[in-house]
Amino acid sequence: MKFLTIIFFLISLLVLSSIYISPLDFWPISFISLSIPFIILFNIFLFVFFVLKRKFLAAFPLIVIILGFKFIISSYSFHFSSHKDEKETFSILSYNTSRLLKEDVYSDSFLPKADEMMAWLADQDADIKCFQEFYNNDESKYWNSVEKLSQNKAYHCFFSGAKVNHTTGEIGVAIFSKHPIVNKGEIIFSSNNFNRGNYADLVIKGDTIRVINIHLQSMEIKRAGISNKKTWDDMVEDFVFLYYRIKHGTIDRSLQTKILLDFIEESPYKVIVCGDFNETPYGYVYNAFKSKLNNSFEEAGKGFGFTYNGNTLFFLRIDNQFYSKGIEATNLKTYSTINYSDHFPIAAKYVFNSN
Question: Does 163 score more than 50 pLDDT?
Answer without folding.
Answer: yes
